[in-house]
Amino acid sequence: MTWNDSLRRLTAQLTGHKPSLYPTEELDDLMDIKIARLSTNGFEGDRLTYALALKSGLHLFNESLDPSHDLSQEIHTPTGSYWHGIMHRMEGDYGNAKYWFRLVGRHPVYEALAGEIGTLLKQTDLRQIGSAVLREPLERLKDEGAWDPYLFVDMVECQVTQARDAAGEALLMDMQHIEMLLLLEHCYAESGGEGELLEPR
Fold first, then answer.
1. Sequential pLDDT tens for the chain (201 residues)
2. Ranges of H-type helices in the chain
3. CA-to-CA distance for 115 and 3, rounded, in angstroms?
4. Helices 3-14 and 45-61, axial angle in degrees (round to 10)
5. Would you say 10 and 54 are in contact if contact means Cβ atoms under 8 Å apart?
6. 3-class DSSP state of 30
7. 3-state DSSP assignment of residue 107
């Protein structure tokens, strides 16, 4: 089976799932093996870097932090730092996550991410979020119309360690899912992938 065929199959199996903000164990041990077996033979230079980033991202969709980290820490690019930052955010190491997001700089997915998150927040009645400490930054993000990765880290930390608001949890997981899908699509395009990796949202 070709790289594209294998990748599409794994992506279809994994990306319908919305990863937890704070995973405690992987969803499927076998899926990690399948991701690890995705051969990057034939990839070189930047294309290889993005192919490895795709694998790192797929591990995070499987809520497998360690194998994702093993890959992302060796990808010395803004995109590698992005997956690295998401991994530490999901791990609960929020200060370290911000360090890696500083290395990301202005990532190419931020513009599309701001648009999709802005639409989501405008369609959401934020009054359903009972925690004021969580609702206020969400309202700020909605008004600003730009993606702020540090603010999102703060909101996830607030939810996991303090607010524990059911509606807030669902909304933040939706936001994280959009972020990860966009980053996965970016990696696929930059790796030389043809056509669309994901079904239209």
1. 688 889 999 999 999 999 999 999 999 999 999 999 999 999 999 999 999 999 999 999 999 999 999 999 999 999 999 999 999 999 999 999 999 999 999 999 999 999 999 999 999 999 999 999 999 999 999 998 899 999 999 999 999 999 999 999 999 999 999 999 999 999 999 999 988 898 877
2. 3-14, 29-36, 45-61, 65-72, 78-91, 94-104, 110-122, 132-144, 149-158, 166-190
3. 31
4. 30
5. no
6. helix
7. coil
